[in-house]
Design a protein that fits this description.
Number of strands: 0
Structural class: mainly alpha
Shape: elongated
Number of helices: 9
Largest sheet: none
Length: about 200
């Protein structure tokens, strides 16, 4: 009986994760908010299945939003576990771009939920800044990133970049601007010592 109970639960989790992934992809590519029916169709399920997991548009938007924030916060630690800090920072910037792009198709609902207090925007900002700080601290300790840059500086720069080069559609431009930002985050090269000092 225990195995039978676990199997449906695992199936339900897989189905929910699939719906979440599809909804995220649809929100990224949409110019306006897609219908719940359109998301269900894209996922290859009936509308009743979508509503069983996410009874309202708000519950779906909330789940996608929280999933993306979790990926950003956990992503900082995961990236540092396998990459030098500067490389981890550059990859994290791409994750941030994905998060910004996800808002394309859910902006009206998201803003209404923030306005009503259903989503704590201030807490999200704190979590994201903490993720950036984690990478910055590792970079400073390794001599990989400048010590005079704050998480707020990086967040402001990223918002500026993805405003002028929104994704999808401007990936190449965004990538170039992010690479330029990374160049500015690296410590300046120390000047070489005087040549021939002490020579006759």
């Amino acid at each position: 009986m225990g195995a039978e109970t676990r199997a449906p639960r695992a199936d339900a989790t897989r189905n929910r994760d699939h719906l979440l992934a599809v909804a995220t992809r649809v929100f990224v590519s949409a110019d306006t908010e897609p219908s719940m029916r359109g998301i269900a169709r894209e996922a290859g399920v009936g509308i009743a299945t979508l509503y069983r997991h996410f009874p309202t548009r708000e519950s779906l938007v909330d789940a996608v939003y929280r999933d993306q924030v979790a990926r950003l916060t956990a992503g900082a630690r995961e990236l540092l576990g396998r990459l030098p800090p500067a490389a981890a920072m550059r990859h994290w910037m791409d994750l941030f771009g994905d998060w910004i792009a996800t808002k394309n198709g859910m902006l009206d609902t998201l803003l209404a939920m923030i306005e009503s207090g259903e989503i704590a925007h201030a807490r999200t900002r704190t979590e994201l800044l903490a993720a950036v700080t984690t990478i910055l601290d590792a970079g400073r300790a390794a001599g990989d990133l400048r010590s005079d840059v704050s998480a707020e500086d990086i967040a402001a720069a990223l918002i500026g970049i993805f405003t002028v080069a929104p994704r999808p559609g401007h990936e190449a431009k965004a990538g170039r601007l992010l690479d330029l930002l990374m160049d500015g985050l690296r410590p300046p090269a120390r000047p070489a010592g005087p040549v021939g000092h002490g020579s006759p």
